[in-house]
């Protein structure tokens, strides 16, 4: 049977030995209140410690928290920092960075950076990245307009996941 209390004991021991995964999981437990009361400060401590040990999921989670959690002061530089590190291992981080740079909501719009992240993910057959590349080629902003490439990327997105936006 599942024993959260025993899990917390072993995770805490592992965390004290600087295992980044244990620190990360404990951070999530405090973030979501799993077996412990919700404590954002404690969650952040564990997540930051895990990120200092180069755990990509901790960087990604910190990026998301700093971007979307209104209990934590917004800091786009830290968001970009954590997501950039996470993007080297996690496709979701690359996709989010692409969106951030494409939309220009939090930073100055940078289509070329967005293109870089989407192109990287496209090579991994990410349908959302392919769709976004199709949009960039269709619109021709900062990248030469190329309807042929747009159709190819839209077609690949549809083929991979029947992407309704690409359709």
Index terms:
70% helix; 0% strand
Low-confidence stretches: none
Largest sheet: none
Average of pLDDT: 94
Structural class per helix/strand content? mainly alpha
Form type: elongated
Distance between the termini: 46 Å
Helix content: over 70%
What is the strand content? under 5%
Q: How many separate helices?
A: 9
The count of β-strands is 0
> Radius of gyration from the CA trace?
19 Å
| Series of secondary-structure elements, N-terminal to C-terminal | HHHHHHHHH
Q: Care to describe what's here?
A:
The chain contains 9 helices and no strands. It is elongated, with a radius of gyration of 19 Å. α2 (20-32) packs antiparallel against α3 (40-52) and α3 packs across α4. The protein has helices at residues 4-16, 20-32, 40-52, 56-68, 76-87, 91-103, 111-122, 127-139, 147-161. The protein has 167 residues and is mainly alpha-helical. The relative contact order is 0.07.
